[in-house]
């Protein structure tokens, strides 16, 4: 019974996420109401409030979930001893491809503390955790890597005919590998 309930909750949250994504593509986020979301998702208002306070809470939780997923992917680099970037980049790009609509919308809609900035922060943190900070230069290098990675991924997700996935991954590996190797040495 409990597993069935978990499935229903996951399904409900997915419907709400999809509804919010569609609405954010149609109008300004600030003008989206809970009524709009529940109508679009075809669920009851009480069900919405069982999971979220308001549409801002819904968006924040979607972003937080996705950021946590990315954090997990990046952490895998550390767990694998800093080996090949390929499997991590492949997972990240696959994830973006599967969630293209919501990622594109979050990047476009989110403000100064939005999705892109949160993703940059996660990549910076992971970089600083993996490399002993030897000076202020390392902080700048971490920001450079993070903004570059996020910028490439944003562009790839937003393009109507993006670079083929395998070419994007190869390009990112080509750019990142020397920077990551020199930091370990």
Characterise the protein shown here.
The structure is a single chain. This protein folds into two domains: 1-52, Orthogonal Bundle (Arc Repressor Mutant, subunit A), CATH 1.10.10; 59-184, Tetracycline Repressor, domain 2. It starts with a helix and ends with a helix. Helix 1 crosses helix 2 (34-41), helix 1 crosses helix 6 (100-109) and helix 4 runs parallel beside helix 7 (115-130). The chain has nine helices and no strands. The protein is mainly alpha-helical and 185 residues long. It comes from Agathobaculum faecis. Residues 10-70 form the HTH tetR-type domain. Pfam families: TetR_C_8, TetR_N.
Mean pLDDT: 84
Rg on CA atoms, Å: 18 Å
Q: What is the CATH homologous superfamily assignment of the largest domain?
A: Tetracycline Repressor, domain 2
Helical stretch tally: 9
List the helices and strands and how they pair.
Layout: H1 2-26, H2 34-41, H3 45-51, H4 55-79, H5 86-98, H6 100-109, H7 115-130, H8 136-158, H9 165-184
List its salient traits.
185 residues; mainly alpha; Arc Repressor Mutant, subunit A; Tetracycline Repressor, domain 2; 2 domains; 79% helix; elongated
């Amino acid at each position: 019974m409990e597993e069935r309930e978990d499935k229903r909750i996951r399904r409900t949250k997915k419907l709400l996420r999809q509804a919010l994504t569609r609405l954010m593509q149609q109008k300004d986020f600030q003008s989206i109401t809970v009524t709009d979301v529940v109508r679009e998702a075809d669920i009851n208002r009480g069900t919405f409030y069982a999971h979220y306070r308001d549409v801002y809470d819904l968006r924040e939780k979607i972003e937080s979930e996705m950021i946590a997923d990315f954090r997990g992917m990046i952490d895998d680099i550390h767990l694998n001893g800093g080996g090949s970037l390929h499997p991590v980049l492949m997972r990240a790009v696959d994830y973006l491809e599967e969630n293209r609509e919501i990622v594109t919308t979050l990047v476009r809609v989110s403000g100064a503390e939005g999705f892109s900035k949160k993703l940059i922060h996660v990549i910076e943190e992971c970089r600083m955790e993996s490399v002993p900070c030897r000076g202020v230069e390392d902080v700048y290098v971490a920001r450079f890597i993070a903004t570059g990675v996020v910028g490439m991924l944003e562009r790839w997700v937003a393009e109507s005919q993006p670079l083929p996935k395998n070419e994007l991954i190869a390009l990112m590996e080509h750019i990142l590998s020397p920077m990551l190797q020199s930091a370990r040495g």
